[in-house]
Amino acid sequence: MRALIGRLLCLIGIHDYQVIDTTFGFGPNSSVSRVECRRCGRMNIRQA
Questions:
Q1: Which residues have a Cβ under 8 Å from the Cβ of 45 and sit 6 or more positions away?
Q2: DSSP string, 12-43
Q3: What residues does each domain of the chain span?
Q4: 16-43-9-6 Cα dihedral, nearest 10 degrees
Q5: What separation in angstroms does the CA of 31 have from each of 1, 13, 21, 48?
Q6: What contacts 24+ positions apart, CB below 8 Å, involve 31-39?
Q7: Predicted local confidence at residue 41, as pLDDT
Q8: Taking the mean position of all CA atoms in its chain, how far away is CA 44?
Q9: Which of 24, 31, 40, 41 could form a disulfide with 48 if both were Cys (CB 3.0 to 4.6 A apart)?
Q10: Which residue from 30, 22, 17, 26 is spatially nearest to 9, judged by alpha carbons?
Q11: 43 Cβ partners below 8 Å, 6+ apart?
């Protein structure tokens, strides 16, 4: 039941992200994080 609710949340766009990889640098917009949803496996890249 809990897994079903989690999958439904992913379908409507509410993901449970965990950080996979982070790259730091100097200057504006130089930090990049790669994140993955624990429930559905969707990968995103975030820039800070």
A1: 32, 33, 34, 35
A2: TT---EEEEEEE--SSTT--EEEEEETTT--E
A3: 2-47
A4: -60
A5: 38, 24, 11, 5
A6: 37/10, 39/3, 39/6, 39/7, 39/9, 39/10, 39/15
A7: 95
A8: 5
A9: 31
A10: 17
A11: 20, 34, 35, 36, 37
Burial of 31 (0-12, 13-18, 19+ CB in 10 A): middle
Q: What is the pTM of this model?
A: 0.76
In the DSSP assignment, the letter for residue 47 is E
pLDDT one-digit tens code per residue, 1-48: 988 999 999 999 999 999 999 999 888 778 999 999 999 999 999 987
